[in-house]
């Protein structure tokens, strides 16, 4: 039960919404025709979650991440993931240094020590190198040779990924996929978007962005997001929705082999709070669940062989669950009537 004295008030919500709207307008100048994608990205930012962007090369995934780092004015480092990349290239490694006539190992920090880590084409690296991010993404720290080093706060992994159908890629393991707060699909725009790109951009030129938020602003907005009220009925809906992703618990999950984890439920609860803040509301709603369930759940479901053979997509399963699972819990009396023996 939330402490009512710590619930967000209307004035705070309106001020936060105004700041986030300015950030959204700025990012709309980086990638055209992707308003929903940008809103999802900001939602994950306020919730403190990592994001996996998937799409074909050349659609602006990397530019969007770089633009976000500029608009928020936080440290950003980029790793180009390749098959020969080593875990130490990500986390850093001890280096032998000479000090006052003696030699000792001194830890040299890798690029993971930053606020925004752009993991470009993350699925082109080997699984061993991909796993170097597991501890960093979950616990915001890195352990090397038994020594633990804390990462800067806030810390976000913003990874881009080419579809696994392309040659030279390694599918991300389920343990790492589960650590991504959102998986967002980057779709290509239509001819009107292409015309605007041709008119407004030159090959090789990066868009100029103004700083919208400071480090302090972002930390405050993240704190305000946690204070958005989550009604009991919405929390109950989230719990039932995530539970229904497991096989045997709903008709929509018929082709699912493994459902979503408790981490998914926590992520969805954080997402609906963040989206409510973006909308300037002091409490989360069923609408927020419907708007964020897809990017939270679609990458966390594992389909069985027959479903994959039939071409079923996890996004279709999530959509079916949203249609099948009632928002309001069924009355206890009605359930007792169905189970009673006449």
From TrEMBL:
It comes from the Bacteria. Gene3D superfamilies: Magnesium chelatase subunit I, C-Terminal domain (1.10.8.80), P-loop containing nucleotide triphosphate hydrolases (3.40.50.300). Pfam families: AAA_3, AAA_lid_2. SMART domains: AAA. GO terms for molecular function: ATP binding; ATP hydrolysis activity. Coiled coil: none annotated. CDD domains: AAA (cd00009). Signal peptide: none annotated. Residues 47-190 form the AAA+ ATPase domain. This is ATPase AAA. It comes from Entotheonella factor. The lineage of its organism: Bacteria, Pseudomonadati, Nitrospinota/Tectimicrobiota group, Candidatus Tectimicrobiota, Candidatus Entotheonellia.
């Amino acid at each position: 039960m939330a402490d009512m004295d710590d619930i967000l008030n209307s004035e705070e919500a309106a001020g936060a919404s105004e700041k986030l709207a300015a950030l959204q307008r700025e990012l709309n100048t980086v990638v055209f025709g992707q308003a929903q994608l940008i809103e999802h990205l900001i939602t994950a930012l306020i919730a403190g979650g990592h994001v996996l962007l998937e799409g074909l090369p050349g659609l602006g995934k990397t530019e969007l991440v770089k633009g976000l780092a500029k608009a928020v004015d936080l440290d950003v480092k980029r790793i180009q993931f390749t098959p020969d990349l080593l875990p130490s290239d990500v986390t850093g490694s001890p280096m032998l240094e000479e000090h006052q006539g003696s030699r000792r190992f001194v830890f040299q920090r890798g690029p993971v020590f930053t606020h925004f880590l752009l993991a470009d084409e993350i699925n082109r690296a080997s699984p061993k190198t991909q796993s170097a991010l597991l501890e960093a993404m979950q616990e915001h720290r890195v352990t090397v040779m038994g020594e633990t080093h804390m990462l800067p706060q806030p810390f976000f992994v913003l990874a881009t990924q080419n579809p696994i159908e392309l040659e030279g890629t390694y599918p991300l393991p389920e343990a790492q996929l589960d650590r991504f707060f959102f998986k967002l699909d980057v779709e290509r725009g239509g001819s009107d978007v292409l015309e605007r790109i041709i008119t407004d951009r030159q090959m090789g030129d990066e868009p100029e962005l103004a700083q919208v938020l400071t480090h302090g602003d972002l930390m405050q907005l993240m704190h305000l997001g946690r204070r958005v009220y989550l009604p009991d009925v919405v929390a109950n809906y989230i719990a039932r929705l995530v539970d229904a992703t497991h096989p045997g618990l709903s008709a929509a999950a018929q082709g699912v082999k493994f459902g979503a984890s408790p981490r998914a439920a926590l992520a969805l609860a954080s997402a609906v709070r963040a989206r409510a803040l973006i909308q300037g509301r002091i409490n989360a709603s069923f609408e927020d669940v419907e708007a964020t369930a897809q990017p939270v759940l679609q990458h966390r479901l594992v389909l069985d062989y027959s479903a994959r053979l039939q071409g079923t997509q996890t996004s279709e399963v999530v959509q079916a669950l949203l249609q099948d699972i009632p928002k309001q819990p069924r009355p206890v009396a009605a359930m007792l009537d169905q189970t009673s023996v006449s």
